[in-house]
Amino acid sequence: AKAEAAVAKAEAALKQAQSEVGKATLTAPYAATVARVDMHVGEPADNTDAIIAVADLSSFHVDVPVDELDVAQLTPDQTVRVALDALPDADVQGTVTNIAPLATENDKGTTTYQVTVEVQAGEAALRQGMTAVVQIVTRNKTDALLVPRRAVQSENGQSYVLVPTAGQPDPRTAQPASERRNVTIGLSNNESVEIVSGLKLGDKVLVADVVQVLDTGVN
Fold it and tell me: pLDDT (tens digit, 9 = 90+) per residue, 2-33?
């Protein structure tokens, strides 16, 4: 009987030891890379302590605030371009994976919706925490005649540009002599406006509030 009790006690001790060894093995919930170790050998720990931090470096996500005027043009699975300050030459693309159903208003009173973009690392040396600028392509057009957005003005619903002429500069503003030319606009973004009619390739236009003459271009 004593021998059986000793065996049972030994088996219990073995199970306890195996359990303790199992607790010493940390398993990540997914394939990942150790990004940070917060504890060292010999330090006491319990099941609420964070021992290491892991990161999946094969893909990343970027949360982007999108203005309410633009969010209606977005759809899940839409392709985006991602520019990174730390990797200016990297060609990184992503996909819209989620568009928040609820709006957020910032301290300036602007209403935005958080859009989540999934980015595949590919060959780019991406790291968590990098600053990114996301360009979401809502529409695409080739061979469009473009002018800077600041060159296009509007009055009573009619868009127009100022085209330089051979006259003398305005003595009050020093702006080059110009004439108004009505135009029909098409696609636009934060920087450029498509001119559908009213200008032709090579025409020069004035940029508002800047003494600068620019050639129209094709993109």
Answer: 677 777 888 888 888 777 776 667 788 878 88
- Domain that residue 48 falls in: 2-55
Cα(first)–Cα(last) distance of the chain, in Å?
Answer: 92
Strand 132-136 relative to strand 79-84: parallel, antiparallel, unpaired?
antiparallel
Give me the CATH number covering residue 154: 2.40.420.20
DSSP string covering 104-160, please?
EE-TTS-EEEEEEEEEE-TTS---TT--EEEEE-S---SS-EEEEGGG-EEETTEEE
Share of the chain above pLDDT 70, in %: 89
Query: Do 106 and 150 sit in the same domain of this protein?
Result: no
State how many domains the chain has.
3
Angstrom CA distances, 87 to 84, 123, 125, 132, 189, stand at 5, 12, 8, 10, 24
CA distance 136 to 203: 30
Q: Where a domain ends, among 136, 166, 186?
A: 136
Q: Are residues 113 and 78 in the same domain?
A: yes
DSSP state for residue 13 in the 8-state scheme: H
Domain boundary among 71, 101, 136: 136
CB 117 within 8 A of CB 64: yes
**Residue 23 backbone dihedrals phi, psi, to 5 degrees:** -70, -25
